[in-house]
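Run log, item B.
One chain of 121 residues. Sequence copied directly from the ordering sheet:
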Amino acid sequence: MSAVPPSVLIVDDDVAFRDLIRRLLTVQGLSVVGDVGTVAEALAAAESLRPDAVLVDVGLPDGDGIALAGRLSRMDWSPRVVLTSTDPAAADGTATSRSGAVGFLPKDELAGDALRHMLVG
C-alpha cells in the first residue's frame, strides 16, 4: 500500500505560472489539489480542500499574500505555507516568520529541492 502524496494548493494570479508549478510539483511526487488566483479564492479553496501545504504568491490582485499566509497558517489543520514572488526581496525573514509561513523562495528558485522540502517538511 503506497502513502498518499502530500496535497498542495497553488495561489498565484498568473495562470501560466500556476500551470508550470503544477507540473513541477506533480513530477516531485506532490498532489496539486487546486490552483487559484486571488485571496478570496484561496480562502474558499483552502477551507474546501484542506491541503497539507499552500504555495502563495506575495502579490495578489485582491490583497497581500503575506497576510494571506498568516490566515492560512492559522487554519484548524495548520497547512504548511510557502511564500513566493518574482521579486527576491518581496518577503524578508521577519515578515515570513510573522506570517506563519515556513519560508520564502523567489520564483526563479522553485525548481530545486528546497520547495519540496518546505512544502513537505
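Observations after the first pass:
- The chain has one domain: 7-120.
- The first strand starts at residue 7 and ends at 11.
Flagged for discussion on Thursday.
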